[in-house]
Amino acid sequence: MQQAPASFIAPQGGIDRNDPRPLHRQVYEALLASIRDGKLPLRGKLPSERELVDLYNVSRITVRHAVRELIQQGVIHSQPGKGLYVAERGGGFELQVLKSFTSIAIASGRSPGHRLIEASIVHAPLEVSRPLFLAPGAEVVLLSRLRLLDNIPAVVQTDWIPAARVPGLLDLDWAVANRSLYAELRERYGIHPKRGQTTLSARLATEQEAAMLELPPPAAVLTVDQIAFDDRNRPVNLTALVHHPARYPLTLLQSESGDFTQY
């Protein structure tokens, strides 16, 4: 397996010091573009850390930050003692509470997007306030979106986030097609989901769900209910997902040790 020449994947002028985006984000997007364009093929080896530092004229910390994000999204993986490789894409989508729809779609080589259904602050009903460790009726941010894969409806996703932890979250433009909730929580509020739990079930779609997911009624849907917690065991968000059963099949990754390689 040959390593891609650094000069081959380098976009000319890929890093702009006047760009408001952080440098690590620019490196991340440049590498992701090279993978999407096929300049870095599946199972292909990335240039070394030193080559990436020289290529983009940034620090090792910047490169590591960008690479870490690509690893977290499953786009690349590390083989200890060998280097970094572009990950193979499976037939389904990874069931992973700590990864966003956006990152899972990107790791699968698909283009994520969404259509906004609702973004508001509401008083949490008991079934929402209880798992979020909130008093009944406490304010939560409600964010409901129709998630798209290559512009095709795949999932109806509704999130509830304690409003006190995310002031100004609704000031963002949630009509933007590729805005990631977890990326905003990490970068704007310093909230990092560390563990979570998922409950799977199935039921008939409501009339509205069937219409949004382009399913002829009566239609069965897969439901996924998730809650994520931070490193202090505080609930981050409660998520309810309604999956199109054919457009968003789920894959559960397992290992005997439970270990996952980190960069």
TrEMBL record:
<keyword id="KW-0805">Transcription regulation</keyword>
<dbReference type="Pfam" id="PF00392">
    <property type="entry name" value="GntR"/>
</dbReference>
<keyword id="KW-0238">DNA-binding</keyword>
<dbReference type="Pfam" id="PF07702">
    <property type="entry name" value="UTRA"/>
</dbReference>
<dbReference type="InterPro" id="IPR011663">
    <property type="entry name" value="UTRA"/>
</dbReference>
<keyword id="KW-0804">Transcription</keyword>
<feature type="region of interest" description="Disordered">
    <location>
        <begin position="1"/>
        <end position="21"/>
    </location>
</feature>
<dbReference type="InterPro" id="IPR050679">
    <property type="entry name" value="Bact_HTH_transcr_reg"/>
</dbReference>
<dbReference type="InterPro" id="IPR028978">
    <property type="entry name" value="Chorismate_lyase_/UTRA_dom_sf"/>
</dbReference>
<dbReference type="InterPro" id="IPR000524">
    <property type="entry name" value="Tscrpt_reg_HTH_GntR"/>
</dbReference>
<dbReference type="InterPro" id="IPR036388">
    <property type="entry name" value="WH-like_DNA-bd_sf"/>
</dbReference>
<dbReference type="InterPro" id="IPR036390">
    <property type="entry name" value="WH_DNA-bd_sf"/>
</dbReference>
<protein>
    <submittedName>
        <fullName>GntR family transcriptional regulator</fullName>
    </submittedName>
</protein>
<feature type="domain" description="HTH gntR-type">
    <location>
        <begin position="21"/>
        <end position="89"/>
    </location>
</feature>
